[in-house]
Amino acid sequence: MTTSTTPRTQNPTPLWALGDYHAVATELIAPLGPRVVEATGIGPGQHVLDVAAGTGNAALPAARTGADVVASDITQALLDIGQRAADAQGLDLDWRADDAQALPYDDAEFDAAISCVGVMFAPRHQDAADELARVVRPGGRIGLISWTPEGFIGRMFATMKPYAPAPPPGAQPPPLWGDEAHVRGLLGDGVTDVVAVRETVSIDRFASGAEFRDFFKATYGPTIMVYRSIADDPSRVAELDAALAALGDSALVDGRMEWEYLLLTCRRA
Questions:
Q1: What is the mean pLDDT of the chain?
Q2: Dihedral, CA of residue 2, residue 74, residue 58 and residue 44, to nearest 10
Q3: Which of 99, 169, 226, 264 would you label with 125, given CA atoms 20 to 30 Å apart?
Q4: Are the C-beta atoms of 95 and 4 separated by less than 8 Å?
Q5: pLDDT of 218-245, one tens digit each?
Q6: Does the record bear Methyltransferase in its keywords (predicted)?
Q7: For residue 114, what are the CA distances in angstroms to 14, 137, 232, 250?
Q8: What pLDDT digit, counting tens, does each position of 178-208 carry?
Q9: What distance in Å separates the CA atoms of residue 127 and residue 74, rounded to the nearest whole number?
Q10: What's this model's pTM, rounded to 2 decimal places?
Q11: Residues 260, 148: contact at Cβ < 8 Å?
Q12: Domains (range + CATH), the chain
């Protein structure tokens, strides 16, 4: 099933259409989607919304449980890739181009809402959190996986920050969603039964920090955007090249990296 709607807030840049995010999702962090589905208790017959679904890292495993899944993302190009993957697997999902900060769904429409390193990139955190809670029925579940500020991806964003363009007014750093206190504050008393744990996903894809850097330069939208913003300054490109390679090297232990994330589940009050 394919249904497309126009986002209420247009994406100012095709950030997540840059590179090949599907390669990141499938080659590096594939275990995260099934993890958030399992932790949230997704199962047959539930009406589930995957917010900022990308190419379906969590939406596809949710559909495999027998749930009725809507995969929502602001970037149509990612949804198109996800739809093709779903078709190849014989899965029936509803793919919709929506803004996580202004979801076009009724109050209490879903039994559960999930997001796997997705909603954390909505610039206005409170708006996105309010929408997550609004569309879930009382007693329904919310499950989120977000990169922590202290973990590897959080440190990668900190490394890129001095080279990045200024964020839009009101935007907050994505890794704040990996801080339990921040997310509890966003969701407030609209949720109960909050459980938050820090876990890691093991990455054995890279033999060196330079190999990690080059993979992200080719595939990961935020990294590509930062490099494009300094492309006319070779000295800054070289500085960032060295900093990202050093970061990667610092995280490699016996050919493996451990990328930390926060898994947070709760129930709509």
A1: 95
A2: -50
A3: 226
A4: yes
A5: 999 999 999 999 999 999 999 999 999 9
A6: yes
A7: 23, 13, 40, 32
A8: 999 999 999 999 999 999 999 999 999 999 9
A9: 15
A10: 0.94
A11: yes
A12: 15-202+258-268 (3.40.50.150)
